[in-house]
Amino acid sequence: MLLSVVVNRKPANPWYGNIITQPMTKNTVPTRGRRLKRNGKLAEKAFQRLSKAILSGELKEGDSLKETRLAHEWKIGITPLREAIRRAAEFGYLILRPNRTTLVRKLSTDDISHIYAMRELLECAALDSASDRFTDTDFRDLETLVRKAEKTSSAPQRIRLQYSLDIALHHLWVQRCENPWLTSTLQRLLVFLPNYNPNANNLFKNRNHLAEAAFREHKLILQALRKKDLRVAKQLLASHIRAHGALLVKLHEEGPLGDKKVPVKRVSLKKAR
Question: Between 195 and 27, where is the model more confident?
Answer without folding.
Answer: 195
